[in-house]
Amino acid sequence: MTQLVLEQALNGLQFGLMLFLLAAGLTLVFGIMDCINLAHGSLYMVGAYFVAAAAQAADSFWLGLGAGIAGTAVLGLLLELSLFRQLYRRDHLSQVLATFALILIANESVRLIWGPAPLLLNPPAALSGPVEIAGFFYPAYRLVIIGVGLVVAALLYLLVAKSRVGMWVRAGASNREMTEALGINVRGLFTAVFVFGAALCALAGGLLGPLLAVQVGMGESVLILAFVVIIIGGIGSIRGALVGALIVGTVDTLGRALLPTLLRATLPADAAATLGPALASILIYLLMAAILFFKPQGLFPARA
Amino acid sequence: MAFYRPARWQNAAVIVSLAMLIALPELLTALDQSYYTGFATRVLIFALAASSLNLVLGFGGMVSLGHAAFFGVGAYVAAICYDAGIHEGLLVLPLAALFAGLFALLVGAISLRTRGVYFIMITLAFAQMTYYLFVSARAWGGDDGMPIYERMRFAGFSLLADEALYYLALGVLALCMLLFARLAGARFGRTVQAIRDNETRMEALGYPVFRYRLVCFALGGAVAGLAGALLANLTGMASPNLLQWTQSGTLLVMVIVGGVGYLWGGLVGAVVLLLLEEFLLAWFEHWHIVLGLLLIGIVLFAPRGVAALFGKRHG
Amino acid sequence: MSIRLTALAAALMLAGSVHAADKIKVGFVSTLSGPGAGLGVDIRDGFNLGIQHLGGKLGGLPADVLVADDQQNPDIAKQASDKLLKRDKVDFMTGIVFSNIMLAVGPAVFQNQTFYISANAGPSQYAGEQCNPFFFNVAWQNDNLHEAVGKVVQDKGFKNVMIVTPNYPGGKDAVSGFKRFYKGKTEEMYTKLGQLDYAAELAQIRAAKPDALFFFLPGGMGINFVKQFVAAGLSRDTQLFAPGFSADEDVIKAVGDPMMGMFNSSHWAHDMDNAENKRFVADFQKAYGRLPSLYASQGYDAALMMDAAVRDVKGNVADKKALQKALEAKRFKSVRGDFKFNSNHYPIQNYYLRVIGKDAQGRVTNKTMGTIFTNHADAYAAQCKMK
After folding, report:
1. Looking at beta carbons, which residues of chain A come within 8 Å of B260?
2. Closest Cα partner for A199 from A86, A50, A299, A302?
């Protein structure tokens, strides 16, 4: 039983860290530029497609991952310069509409270029088997994802908390006008943050591609989770994004895993199997509502 | 920005349009295109749903991304009624509006305590939560939705014929638009719009801002439920798709394209969007790219949408 | 003069609008996007190859195939089929992959008195009490392939089997089919239709320690499950069994070597030795650059079936009774060999044991090992009261 819980905890950690990659970019864009970006999930999808296409072309997962991230970063740059710059000073409704339009364009463009059927993306051959830990076998690839997630989290922490750029980012998140008044190139900062967010999306998309499927519309469902994460964690805070993501990841995974077992003792098999995951997903929203009740700005709000 | 200040020619236009809509099914049958009566009914239903969102968004100034939840609840109420043996539309429709409205009251009571971006995201989260709730309920069909094998009757009339359902939808739409127009001019309407324009001032003047907003939100939800029940009878099922947040987005797009804050905004938007979807899709498979670019264009250059071109601007 | 011409033109137009069968329209609604896309694409490609082999004709009349994507969504499937039935007035419908979608679309098709020739979905509901004269299944009834696996697992003497299947009508049929012939201890695990990440389920399987695992996860679901199963190291201790659905070309191509040695059941295999099959397999590879799966063979047979029936009624598809008789007579040569229709319009046929290994060209693919059932009918025919 402990082995089961340990394995599920690792799964939750893996899921949470990937959510963190998505939420980190989103919370920064939100916090500093006050821009709601519904197309963040589409960057994740396009990132996954770029990685899959590049991996097939180069016949190497890692090369594909690198190329995919670079490509998405470039796309992010183009989007920021052409569209998002105009959106910063608009009201939220305009931002919602424009980024929703981007979702439509992204989904259809992907379908146009790669067709409606999903793309195949395989993990590197060396990592497609299990590794032995604590007396059982766990997929090597998932361990690598956890590793990458932790490294990125650590790097982001160093960047935001210890570097000058990070200081500007934190300043911009807590008070944009003041930061501008201090003579910092806020425009350049915005672009950098957006592009960085796009790159993180592509990393998440590329890493999760082999586990899930690279298909049209894969960004929509994960986007909501990312929003829940930053609401819980606090808009504009990287620390909040990490804590929020880990909470959401573990609650969802452990809920999906343990609730059916609990329910199976009392209900027939198929009812338990549907109720379990559904209850677990609602659990996250209830959690979000509860946290908001006590801390309406989230756990670690960036704004003073 | 006033919701409804009709120019004289607008009243005439409304009457002419109504007459054309009444004659439409006959015309379609004559052209051997009676399939499109069903399509026209769909347009009317979405016009109703979009108008209900316009009430919340344009009229009330609340950017809600959770409106699809009420739309879907209405559809499920209709399906559950069918399942429970309630086949009379005079019961089903009010029940759908009631449950959707009550649910909107609940959601609004919680969400309206927040502001700005939080409000948007919470309504979004509520819509998704409703989706998961219905999808998990095996008794209500789960992922596959709940079928309605036979359409409801209305005041004893059978709705099996596409024309019959069309006229019912037209009637409901006309009544609701009349209601909205009346509301806009009444004290309630003027208060809600004033709150939308300057909340602080209204609060300072002692108006119970929260209560007005909540009623507006709930009313929008109730009408969306009405539309949902009609849709379920049209398609023969209550689909969990209706509850997804992307459906909220589609309704939002309709309102924006039509003209947010103008009485006919939702209707015009629904008509334009569904017509384009039906006819452009056959011609250009990837027309959503065009639609997306169009929407971005609207946001950047014509933020008040199509109907704005026809409404008078005051103050 | 001009009045007469106008009258003539009007008469001709009227005549044209009264559906004089000058061509055969087929409505093809299938899953062409999402994780189930591989199946729908295969059925479509097989069907199109059939039409091509028939010279672009069905029963001698030009064939018009209207394809729509249901996106694995019952609502969208219903809308698409409504349009095909009411606006395009198709003569036949086919293509649906998943049983839940079939059950959603069925009633409208039958009410419209249009024949549905299913090239895949074979729900038990339409085999028994809800059987309908307008429904034909040219593939199998859902339970059949699972029954065959159940017999194999029973014969091999496994004591403790874990069943993994999605929670939808096809999945439920899989469980009842398997348990009809496997009498040992089972534990059922239901997943969500379209689910892609099985980490949680695999952890539970590891904890439960079954001797064998029977899974039914068509399309992308199966691909992900097998890959993750192997990655989790479970393939060392637990033997995998599946119906042909989860062990055919689409999954093999994605997963590859880890699938070697997996037993599965099927009514058709690409190495079957008859003239029709040889031609089908060769031409399919030439046209599409890949080996056909059982889904493709079903699509191909559906085309042949429509062709034979239309030919029998000499193009008069408006005569529904005659068309029904013609379809029931099954006067075409299927690529799987001989079979006939049961009273409930489902096939009575053989089911074979296949194993995944390397063929003469070194490709990882299925090899036929033997016969599991001969002239096997489904378990629901007795409940069908169709005349």
Report:
1. 93
2. A50
Select A2-294's CATH number: 1.10.3470, 1.25.40, 3.30.70, 1.10.4030: 1.10.3470
Do C87 and B33 make contact, defined as CB atoms within 8 angstroms? Answer: yes
Residue B219: is its pLDDT beyond 80? yes
The DSSP letter of residue B237 is E
B237 interfaces chain C, CB cutoff of 8 Å: yes
Q: Is C249 exposed, middle or buried (0-12, 13-18, 19+ CB in 10 A)?
A: buried
Mutual angle of helices A40-58 and A186-208, in 10-degree steps: 60
Spell out the domain ranges in chain B: 5-312
Paired residues of C29 in beta bridges: C68
What band does B136 get if pLDDT is binned at 50, 70 and 90? Answer: confident
Helix (H) or strand (E) holding A27: helix A2-33
Beta-carbon separation of C100 and B143 below 8 A: yes
Question: For position A260, what pLDDT does the model report?
Answer: 67
Q: Which chains touch A (3 or more CB pairs under 8 A)?
A: B, C
How far from each other are the two terminal CA atoms of chain C, in whole angstroms? 55
Q: Which residues in chain C show pLDDT less than 50?
A: 1-3, 5-20
| Mutation to test the C interface, candidates A3, A7, A145, most C Cβ within 10 Å | A7
Q: What is the pTM of this model?
A: 0.88
Query: What is the tens place of the pLDDT at every residue in B81-94?
Result: 999 998 998 999 99
Helix axes C74-86, B35-54, angle to 10 degrees: 140
Give the separation between CA A183 and CA A190, rounded to whole angstroms: 14
A237 token code pair: 């805070």
* Span C54-73, pLDDT tens digits: 999 999 999 999 999 999 99
What is the three-state SS of chain C? CHHHHHHHHHHHHHHHHCCCCCCEEEEEEECCCCCCHHHHHHHHHHHHHHHHHCCCEECCEEEEEEEEECCCCHHHHHHHHHHHHHCCCCCEEECCCCHHHHHHHHHHHHHCCCEEEECCCCCHHHCCCCCCCCEEECCCCCHHHHHHHHHHHHHCCCCEEEEEEECCHHHHHHHHHHHHHCCCEEEEEEECCCCCCCHHHHHHHHHHCCCEEEECCCCHHHHHHHHHHHHCCHHHCCEEEEEHHHHCHHHHHHHCHHHCCCEEEECCCCCCCCHHHHHHHHHHHHHHCCCCCHHHHHHHHHHHHHHHHHHHCCCCCCCHHHHHHHHHHCCCCCCCCCCEECCCCCEEEEEEEEEEEECCCCCEEEEEEEEEEEEECCCCHHHCCCC
For the segment C87-108, what is each residue's pLDDT rounded down to a tens digit?
999 999 999 999 999 999 999 9
- Give the pLDDT of residue B305: 53
Q: How sure is the predictor about A286, in pLDDT bands with cuts at 50, 70 and 90?
A: confident
Angstrom distance (rounded) from CA A11 to CA A273: 18
Question: What are the beta bridge partners of residue C68?
Answer: C29
Best of B131, B144, B237, B286 to disrupt the C interface (most C CBs within 10 Å) is B144
Hey, what CATH class is B5-312 in?
A: mainly alpha
When mean pLDDT is compared across A130-144, A268-282, B133-147, B224-238, the lowest value belongs to A268-282
Separation in Å, CA of A129 to nearest CA in chain B: 33
B246 CB-near residues (< 8 Å, 6+ apart): A103, A220
DSSP at A128: S
Higher pLDDT, C101 or A180: C101
Residue A281's nearest CA partner among A241, A237, A235, A221 is A221
Whether the predicted pLDDT of B306 surpasses 80: no
B308 at A interface, C-beta within 8 A: no
What mean pLDDT is reported for chain B? 88
